[in-house]
Amino acid sequence: MIFNCQVIRKHLLVDKVYQLQIYDDRITIGLNNRQLPKYEIPLNLTNRISWRLNEKQQFMEFGIKYNDYVKWFSGKPDNLQRIKQLLTNKIFNHSISTFYQQSELIGSGASSKVITIIDSNKVKYAAKCISKDYITKKKTPDRLNRLLSEITILRSLLNHQNVIQLLDIFEGDSTYYLIFEYLQGDTLHKFIKQQIKPLSEDVIRIILAQLLQGIQYIHSNNYIHRDIKLENIVLSNKQSIQNLKIIDFGLAISSTIFTPFAICGTPGYIAPEILQQKEPNQGQFRFTNKVDMFGIGVMLFRMMTKKSLFDSENTKELLSLNRKCQLPKSQIHGYSNELNNLLFGLLESNPIKRLSSKDALNIINITQMSQELQISQFTTFQYDQDDFEVEHSNDFANTPYQFPNKFLKYELENSFHCNEDHKHSSLHKSFQLSFSLRFSQDIPKQDFIIENFQNIPS
Description:
With about 450 residues, the chain is α+β, with helices and mostly antiparallel strands. It contains twelve helices and 17 strands.
């Protein structure tokens, strides 16, 4: 047992006092500890709990669904607040407007909207709002399972400064909400693009150290991200390379549980062993965390050159270049042999020979990186201002790409992501920062209702 306290169920004549107990997998509510509980609520993502606060934002009551009715219980505010804390990310909360006010729309896509929200202490967060209609309209559990898997993985990754933090989850009548820490900075893609010239080796090493430590933490917890790319790395603060965050775990899987083969990720970042699989052998393919290391190698190449490793305006050609994985034959000038060796070790086409996160961290000097990270707060970056660049909030599929076979088409429809380099080219796939449910072939709805929040701009 993790926690217990008294709660009161109010009745017309006589109120009843119950004992509430919280365990790892359930909540029980009974008259006393010696009898079987009257109410038992499994702590899983199929259930939700409602809350009532007073005008001072003190917890007053919570409600649970029992036999199609919501049963309300009151208790001491401190106890109820403790219950809320202990249940974080284990069960959906209801009525997000009880705790937050919506601020502004910062992203929009076919399946989701991302808005900033503010709590009673004026602290800003980011909320990913996912339409239930979008989740359920294909009448298969795949989309819901992906969402629940993303939540399950994120709540297991709460103890690293370089991994995005999922802070709370809510379920409304028509919308799911994932509450994240608010990151003020740009994506690493945009940060690099804004620089006048390629990054210096010192800056690259500072960025790499954080990425490698973050990905090592993910791998040590037996997860594979499967969509490591520049757009999924975000600066916590503007113009600062300290405290980078790895985001978007919508394609992440467990490395200890067999996952059926799927071509997934972003063209140009996909590990070649995935694209090289022949259909007869796909049933035996097992994902390894080395697919993430290849993505880090692609990012490192971009940091060193300001160029894409595989570059084409045509989807089929880009996939072909990615699959063949023909690397530059010479080292990149202006950088040390050590950094070049790290680059080619990460981009090794054979996953067995490819560097692991531990291998890569051993190559760069972590002690030196820590010292440089302290110095980096004083670093001034020179930005390449492009007054004619227009940011687009939507980039939906206009003409679906004809994939080479039905199996590949199915997988790419459900798991293929686009990157910022090609969002205005023939790669017409839906792309939005931190959206994890990107099913590019769906016809997007013009809007969906986010209940409790009013007047959200579209």
